[in-house]
Amino acid sequence: MGSVASYFRNLNKKEKKQEEERLLRANDRGFNLSFQYANNAIRTSKYNIFTFLPLNLFEQFRRLANAYFLFLLILQMIPQVSSLSWFTTAVPLVIVLSITAAKDASDDINRHKCDKQVNNREVEVLIDGELKKEKWREVQVGDIIKLENNEFVTADLLLLSSSEPLNLVYVETAELDGETNLKVKQALTVTGEMGDSIEALASFNGEVRCEPPNNCLDKFKGTLTVNGQAYSLDNDKVLLRGCTLRNTEWCFGLVMFGGPDTKLMQNSGKTVFKRTSIDHLMNILVLGIFGFLATMCAILSICNAIWEANEGSAFTVFLPREPGVNSSLSSFLTFWSYVIVLNTVVPISLYVSVEIIRLGNSFFIDWDRKMYYPKNDTPAQARTTTLNEELGQIKYIFSDKTGTLTQNIMTFNKCSINGKAYGELCDFSGQRIEITEKTPRVDFSWNQLADPKFIFHDHSLVETVREGNPEAQAFFRLLALCHTVMPEEKKEGELFYQAQSPDEGALVTAARNFGFVFRSRTPETITIMEMGRKVVYELVAVLDFNNVRKRMSVIVRGPEGKTTLYCKGADTIIYERLHPSCSNLMKVTTDHLNMYAGDGLRTLVLASKDLDESYMKEWRKRHNEASTAMEDREERLEELYEEIEKDMTLLGATAVEDKLQDGVPQTIEQLAKADIKIWVLTGDKQETAENIGYSCNMLREEMNEVFVVAANTAEGVREELRSARRKMCPDAAEEPSVTTARAGLFWLKKTQTVQDEKVDGEYAMLINGHSLAFALEEDLELELLRTACMCQTVICCRVTPLQKAQVVQLVKKYKQAVTLAIGDGANDVSMIKAAHIGVGISGQEGMQAVLSSDFSFAQFRYLQRLLLVHGRWSYLRMCKFLRYFFYKNFTFTFVHFWYAFFCGFSAQTVYDEWFITLYNTVYTSLPVLALSLFDQDVNDRWSFQYPQLYAPGQQNLYFSKKAFLNLTAFSCYSSLVLYFVPWAAIHDTVRDDGKDIADYQSFALFAQTCLLIVVSIQMCLDTYHWTAVNNLFIWGSLAVYFAVTFTMYSNGIFVIIPSAFPFVGTERNTLNLPNVWLTIVLTSLLCILPVVAYRFIVMQIRPTINDKVRHRARKEPPPTPAPRRPVRRVSTRRSGYAFAHSKGYGDLVTSQRFLMKRPVKGRVMLFSHITPAES
């Protein structure tokens, strides 16, 4: 036994020991297994067949309510204590536990199926010198595996070799970052030389020493040691699990991290059990109710002791006490008896009903056809059924950009050529015509090499190009030549372009459709088809793009021997380098650029320059010297570039649309009206994020100021944040106002809240990732939060997945507001899990975010319907349900309390035992469920028309501690009326025949009938939206009550089981009396009239937005959604250059070795004609 214990102790020590560095050896499983690295199997399930029952029951009994009802069940099995049968608690408890267990089991079975599907995928693994098919779960660290085109990457791999030149591979990372454009990875030369030689790969014994498993997607550090020589490894040499191999015949990789250690799974993080703010409030209220229950029971037990001492002795003659029971013991037993009798203040059906309501409202989200995206056949999905009402309380939204706000699709929209704008359509009066799907498109059938997916509407541009306009042809010739795009032509005429950024791909495709088709590269030439004529240009040099230059140039020599420089770049950069003769054209083009900026388009300016041959010979000589210099190489090259890129001639400008998802600006506008703040957290560069901010109307020209925080030191960041804050709110205190409070169960949790500060005007803030890293440190985080919350819009650029989660947690920690995170890639998973609500965008961009989300749909625009309609209705319904449920049960229970003073505090129930059993399960359960599933204050159209209706949920106005105390007081009043009015009416009353009717059974029937009618009328008052279901359940429940009561109190039932149905004949003897019905009416009026009067007065004196809209909705037809027309902004700022975030492919295409491609049988060679810029 001791050895077993020591084994588990050692096991725990191993688990706790954190990996600091990973060491592995290729093709040596024995060596790698000694480190006990995780294999490639993944497990997202929580249970197995043996652990399900104990673990699930343990989790369920951790809920305070379930443990409480188990305790009650034990009490009810003690005869001396219980006055109710044990099954009244046992049956509902078993049902609750079973329903929850079935739901958990179903969820876990689905997880098991997903795990099994992934783990059983097959891949070729190099074992004992030959390739064998193995399941993913069998793959070990140190194995060498072979991947083929369009296959998923099995694990995190070190790329060894590939079928492509320069050992390149192309991967799609949509599952990781939501981006659909391909990324390039490149193997080391020392491993790439092995190619696909099985012998060389099998004998490879390189050792990798690298960082331990982590969730950083864009960084990797390590070294590969081969034959004693160490080689540096970075992120460009690593293939991550979750990527898909594209346009690459095959590649070999060395497994470095498997299964749970992969970056994909590390980013998934631990599944957090999310609970709504109403859940937390209910826990506190239930705890308070327990205290209140204990207080009531203590009062009644003390009263019982006093009564037994003073009055009880008189009854012992005919009601003798049990042996050994005195007044003290009787009082003690009475306490526990009343715990059972009064337990309905927290009925177990409450938790069953809450789960049913949440499940029902989740189905409404799943079934909503207005959130269904037919293009991808993707419906909305509520993946978590326990968070619906939280959707109605969102205050902060954290959104990714790429794939969430945008489609990550660039389209060539407009252009300006030689001072004339193209791309817009105008009528005869010169008014702009809106372009729709019905607008006639340009016919490109004259161009056999045109891309059939390209859409353009301005026919005049095609006519201009086909007429031979020299400026227009020079414009598109530049677009066809000045780029680093790589072509692929699998079949004659079927061209595919691989661009480093979608922007460049869009420009080359535009040139292709207008008759200037980039066809192929060779070592020293670029071949294009110019209006059907093949033209070969000699590529003299490529002056590549980088973030400092903000431009790119190529120097080419045409067939006639003329050498030309073509340049494209940001307008401010190009304008500085134009010839003075272009000043007039520059003014006209600037007007066009401002117009394009107003439409949120991304612009580039194009220019060219004819070069003298003698000058070029001398320039090339100096360029060659600078390229081979050992010192100051970059500076010398930059000087040469600056020298030649001068006195250029302006050709025009392009406008590319970074296509937003449909309805994004309108959605953001609606959410802003609902007082929801939206922060964009993106890995993109600042320029791109800023462009999208303007396109979405999150950033606007009329804003007072847009602050940019980009300092590289902590002190610099502090100063920039403070400077921004002082400009927005000069009178604000230097130190933030932080309110400390206690919260949570037993008030053990300490909370800190940073108060909002009023700001005059509208401001926005952009902050870079490196600045954000400083701002998130402990001494700066409050300054960041304070400044950011003063702004209408916050955009964080170049942020890591971890920083996204940290920003969400910062707001959760100090604002005590409900947060929602929405994204589409694995880099958004940590943010989605950190927020109260996580939403995944499903579709072409990958499913990793969806798998970790609580709700998912295909388009960002559906978010407004999820929040403003489903979320608001769910919150309203849940609050109404809780208010009504506590009201009816408190009223029911308090009548027992008043009755105790008339029954000698003996724990006798005031109602019939069958009524107690059926009250919550039959008579009042269905009506309140109908209310909670179908009620709506106004319909969805009015909800969209008035987003301000969302505000009460953010402020917790419908259900709070104050609302709970109010309904408790009202329940107390109602119970007094429901007990004492029938008691007074029946006291000393006789029937028409002179017989006394003031007996216990008649009073019990009288009181319970009054109670049920009053709570039903209250239900009618609380119902805003009447449906056939509501009518059926309310009136049907009353009918069922009378039918069941007549049946149970009949002679026939009494004869069968006399002990179970003692109230024989009570109903027909009581309910046939006119004064009984008159008393029921009087009781109902006394209970309901104060409510009606109070609501009427409040509505007249202090109407809420809800009251106003409901009043209007009764008088007017539902508003028809107006078609949104694009509004042009007036803007002087231009959006960013359409380049990638990092340096271009210039170095790649300038390498002679780029042509060294391994032949592959039966396949057209990819990039078989690619040109180096110069030798």
TrEMBL record:
GO biological process, one term: phospholipid translocation
Enzyme Commission code: 7.6.2.1
Coiled coil, from the record: 616-650
Keyword Magnesium among UniProt keywords: yes
P-type ATPase N-terminal domain boundaries: 25-89
Pfam families recorded: Cation_ATPase (PF13246), E1-E2_ATPase (PF00122), PhoLip_ATPase_C (PF16212), PhoLip_ATPase_N (PF16209)
GO molecular function annotation: ATP binding; ATP hydrolysis activity; magnesium ion binding; phosphatidylcholine flippase activity
Residues the record lists as binding ATP: 400-402, 504, 545, 568, 602, 682-684, 798, 804, 827-828
Domain of life, per lineage: Eukaryota
Binding sites annotated in the UniProt record for Mg(2+): 400, 402, 824, 828
Protein keywords: ATP-binding, Coiled coil, Lipid transport, Magnesium, Membrane, Metal-binding, Nucleotide-binding, Translocase, Transmembrane, Transmembrane helix, Transport
Record's bilayer topology term: Multi-pass membrane protein
Protein name: Phospholipid-transporting ATPase
Organism whose genome encodes this protein: Oryzias melastigma (Marine medaka)
